[in-house]
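QUALITY CONTROL LOG
STEP: pairwise intake check
CHECKER ROLE: data steward
CRITERIA: each record must contain a sequence immediately followed by its structure tokens, with no blank fields

ENTRY 1 OF 2
RESULT FIELD BELOW
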Amino acid sequence: MAATSHHTRRPLWLRMVGRDPREPHRAATPLELLFDLCFVVAVAQAAARLHHALSEAHAGTGVLGYAMVFFAIWWAWMNFTWFASAYDTDDVVYRLLILMQILGVLILAAGVPRAFEERDFGLVTLGYAVMRVALIALWVRAACEHPEGRRCALRYAIGISVVQVGWILRLTLPEQIGFFAFFVLVAAELAVPVFAERARQTTWHPHHIAERYGLFAIIVLGESILAATLAIQSGLDRGIATAALLSVAFSGAVIVFAMWWLYFSQPAHLLLSSNKTAFPWGYGHYFIFSSTAALGAGLSVAVDYDTHEAHIGAFAAGAAVAVPVVVFLASLWLVHVRPHRPGGLVNGAYLAGMALVLVTPFTPLPLPLPLPLPLIAVVMALLAVASQSPWPWRARQPRAVGGGRQAGASRG
């Protein structure tokens, strides 16, 4: 018999309705994976600029610039992630609007160096605006085609539009006033989903959201490994192959692996039972993702210090790694560990681990290992072991609240 072709043409337009939050086998799509990969380009640019700022002893301005740029990257990524979990149609028009967002983040990435070096946020704002316009179009489409979620979708579209106008107007303000306006606009951005979801909770899928966040965490961890690898390669190309350089490579690999281990110790979807739990979980990932990317910058700074390229001392070089690790542990503890109500051993291990990592820059190892990275690696490895404690985690079970909302959707 002749082979039968099952090829079907992708529809130009499908009616956009809320997807079932209990849909089985819901997984990230290839388009979402491409979307994440393009966003990591911007993350890598921000981390690279943070690396140079720290190595040049400009920690204050470097960290501030990094935090500001990373917010734009993370917030645009997060907004689309939750929208797609509720309204992914994957038709041609939908794909073109996602392409528009990808182009926006590439423009944003191109503007990162100028934002760090010249405090010129024009190109970053332009890229962010392109992404937001595409998202506004998606919300307007959802409002037109999904009557049940129209009030919520319109609130999103209007709220994002108003705040975006504020970001554009911010460019006309004097630098000092624009600096304070940034934090006002950040607060407004964070308030838009809270305001919109009060009308009607969108039908996001807890398993899908947990997978999307987990995949992005893996990609950002990979970016940190790449940044450290390039820095080590640069040292080797200059003929420098010391024990300290090798210790950075080994310690960095252990730290990154332990971070991966800790992040995936427990199923995150169990925590996504309603907006009440989802909002702090989702927002808290700003610190998880930003600290993960900052670790790559810190490892690069450690290599710079070992190859005598950095203009900082041993303490600052050690802190460039210790601080991102502590921020990661603290945010992960608040977002993933405490809500699961773990036993005393796991809870105490996180607190002890944070304290120990925080003091490592004060206790440099003797030459030829002048940096505290091996100590941080040991602490992280022990914490990963402690996270596998035989004591039960006693995870909270999601409770249904009725009303057709997906507050109890994590059962699906």
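ENTRY 2 OF 2
RESULT FIELD BELOW
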Amino acid sequence: MLTNFLPSQVNQFKDPETIAFVQSIERIALATSLSQHPILTTYIKKGSGVTPILLLHGFDSSILEFRLLLPLLATQNETWAVDLLGFGFTQRQKEINYSPTTIQIHLYDFWKTLINRPIILVGASMGGATAIDFTLTYPQVVKSLVLINSLGYTNSPPFSKYLFPPFDFLAVEYLRQRHILALNLCSKLPNLDTKILLAIQCAMLHQEMPGWHDAMISYTKNGGYSNLADRIAKVEKPTLILWGEADDMLPPEDAEKFQQSIANSQLIKLKNCGHAPQIEQPQMTSEHILHFLNNGKF
């Protein structure tokens, strides 16, 4: 594959669409105020249109989360996805403290360098919290907002910031071992849907990147977006809230909280869908986002 900066496990992918998506991943040496050295930042861009869409992935994830959704959006619009600082395949530098603040600075520098036009910002799970935080800080950058089963009211447990060695490493390693166990079990099931195996492979590929453990520990100790809830009502941009009704990670009442807090918002619940509509129902998700983009208001 051309993307030789990705872990070698990428060569295990057999699905043609996933392989094509991976081969479209690009990397830029992004200059930021966070480091004396450019940060090698991974992203993907497809399609064309007046107002770009920028997709933000969730916690401990990567742009592979959008391998099904992005191509659908790109048929009608310029669509980007970027690996957030400390996550995905974007370079992790030891001197950087990984937090919502540094994620925001890196994201702005990415936007300024490569896009530099008002955007439709789409955030899934933790990416939703990132999108809200970014919109409130840089309102001139964001034209409208899409939140997909977003964090904001429910966050990581408060004790996470008090973890200390070696328990911080063990807690993070537990996340990786869960994926390894799932992959090993699924590989031995003769009639397993290949899509499930592919989803696990995609979900764990970035965990093989250098510095993954340290960046995860740093972000977790910083408490994530635990201070966002009181600021959500300040969002003034038109906002589409997409929510998988069968979400087993976030409480269903969070969807209504977002709708009630954001004045100019619409909530659409997706039946028979869990925490990741962008993976579980990409066609329906893309249709809602494109309809929102084309109409511009509710």
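INTAKE CHECK: passed for both entries
DESCRIPTIVE NOTE, ENTRY 2: DSSP finds ten helices and eight strands in the chain.
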